[in-house]
Design a protein that fits this description.
By secondary structure, the chain is mainly alpha-helical. The chain has 6 helices and 3 strands; from the N terminus they run H-H-E-H-H-E-E-H-H. A 3-stranded antiparallel sheet has the order 1-3-2.
């Protein structure tokens, strides 16, 4: 094993550990409201958009398509989101956040912000902004030709 591969393994492990700890703190706050991390991701994505196709939503929420579909089915049943036909492709649907879903997201956002505030209090906002920017640099960007357009 070379020193470079050891450092890469350490980096992956540290990123996974940090992610796991952040998710654990966040999940504790969401569990009190009966919301899963998967549903929180979906609510957050939909809160910032005019609508997503199921495939786009699954990819962005880091879910498989069947898992995303099950989550959306449940959320439709709870009147948190709704589906409409895709304007250009009748085989697809576009998912939107309902007023009830937006209120839930807003209520939850207040409590989940505490997780970020704890990090800011411990390390400072400049440190966190730098970390977020550097982590963003690790995410490969798709060439413009491959990027999907969200419909609204």
């Amino acid at each position: 094993m070379t020193p470079d591969s050891l450092q890469t393994q350490d980096l992956e492990y540290l990123l996974a550990l940090a992610s796991h700890r952040m998710k654990s703190v966040l999940a504790n706050g969401l569990d009190n409201r009966g919301v899963t991390l998967e549903n929180w991701r979906i609510l957050t994505l939909l809160s910032n958009s005019k609508g997503w196709t199921m495939g786009e939503l699954a990819e962005a929420a880091l879910l498989t398509l069947p898992t995303a579909t099950r989550n959306i089915d449940t959320m439709v049943g709870e009147a948190l989101v709704y589906r409409t036909p895709h304007p250009d492709d009748g085989r697809k649907v576009v998912i939107f956040l309902s007023d009830k879903g937006r209120k839930l997201w807003s209520d939850l956002r207040d409590s989940t912000s505490r997780c970020e505030l704890e990090v800011i209090e411990q390390y400072g906002s400049v440190w966190l902004e730098d970390l977020v920017a550097r982590l963003g640099d690790l995410i490969p960007r798709k060439p413009k030709a491959q990027q999907k357009t969200r419909r609204g």
